[in-house]
Amino acid sequence: MAAHATPGPADGPRSSAAAQPPVADPPPDAASPDAAEAAPEGMVTAGRVGRAHGLDGSFYVTRPRARLLDGADEVTIAGVLRQVERRTGTATKPLLRVAGIGDRSTLDAVRGAEIYVPRAQLPELPEDEYWPEDLVGIAVRSRAGASVGEVVAVRDLPSCDVLEVRRPDGGELLVPLIHDAVPDLDVGGRVAVVDLAFLGEDEPGASPVAEVG
């Protein structure tokens, strides 16, 4: 049976060990996008193209995941794989210059675009750890085995990660990634078990209990 996930630094891997208190004040290199959404196959989101710095095409990275950018030799922006030519700045305000973007006009055309890093460039993780992106697409089931939906994003909130689940009827369910709400998480098996009673939700297909007047 898979153990529950532990909240970790926002730009880093999570652990599947027993749940621990969330990090109250992550270090600067933990800045990250609000949600880990589905990236192109084989890619992980590392930030977005921000405003220009100078005239040579250098730019700030917004919503940066500094640990991912630090080890990246190549990034994909607007569907184009580009060599990283220079990486400076700080963990919270990194600066990049990449091949093929050599002036402000070229940069303006891709400003706001997601920056993707090849998954192959990520550091190898221990067996009990995973990246938040690994949770996107996994099936969500109730304790009774009923289908609840599918994880479409992982939101990085101050208290803990939150799974954004799309229900079969198209509705949304937000599930905090804590043991009471997610008693079982099997990343390899691509399934998460949620406690609907803890979330104040009815079991799918259950008949509502009539109120006694």
From TrEMBL:
Gene3D superfamilies according to UniProt: PRC-barrel domain (2.30.30.240), RimM (2.40.30.60)
Signal peptide: none
Stretches the record annotates as Disordered: 1-42
Low complexity bias: start-end ranges: 31-40
GO molecular function: ribosome binding
GO cellular component, one term: cytoplasm
Assembly and binders: Binds ribosomal protein uS19.
Domain statement: The PRC barrel domain binds ribosomal protein uS19.
Cited function: An accessory protein needed during the final step in the assembly of 30S ribosomal subunit, possibly for assembly of the head region. Essential for efficient processing of 16S rRNA. May be needed both before and after RbfA during the maturation of 16S rRNA. It has affinity for free ribosomal 30S subunits but not for 70S ribosomes.
Family affiliation: Belongs to the RimM family.
UniProt protein name: Ribosome maturation factor RimM
Organism: Patulibacter medicamentivorans
Gene: rimM
